[in-house]
Amino acid sequence: MIATPESLGVEGSVIAAVQWIKLAVEAIGAAIIALGVLIAGSQFVMALLRRQTANFNAIRLMLARYLAVALEFELGADVLSTAIAPGWEQIGKLGAIAVIRTALNYFLSIEMKEESASEQEKKVAAQASGSEGG
Asked: What InterPro entries does UniProt report for this protein, alphabetically (predicted)?
């Protein structure tokens, strides 16, 4: 028998709705990761075929951006889970997952900033050497 809003009651309906929203948010996060991996993978293969190994850092940076966005969605799904968590054990597990994902996102963002600054320095150096030669 399929549960209807009348048979679930208000609380059951809210829990069911939050679970569906959580599932959708997790699916969006997973889709972002998959998209980032596909794009980065194709760029990596193209760089290998063209023997442009200098592009690897740019590919890593691009993939890191996708991962950072996806982690935000996954963390949002964890927050939704705590809204309907049945007990302290479940809340503790979700809290641990949230802490791990937040730490991962924090260190990923630091690496992205450092990588971006390094790419900017390379561009400035290339422009400076180009203008000195002319």
From this structure: DUF1622
Write the single-letter amino acid at 120.
Q
| Gap between the Cα atoms of 128 and 131, Å rounded | 5
Q: Where do the H-state alpha helices sit in the chain?
A: 5-50, 56-83, 88-133
What's the Rg (C-alpha) of the chain?
22
Minimal CA–CA distance to 24: which of 67, 86, 74?
A: 74
Q: What angle do CA 59, 61, 64 make, to 5 degrees?
A: 110
Residue 9 region by backbone torsions, left for phi larger than 0, else alpha for psi between -120 and 50, else beta: left
Say how far apart CA 21 and CA 38 lie, in whole Å. 26
**Does position 2 have pLDDT exceeding 60, yes or no?**
no
Q: What is the pTM of this model?
A: 0.70
Domain that holds residue 31: 5-133
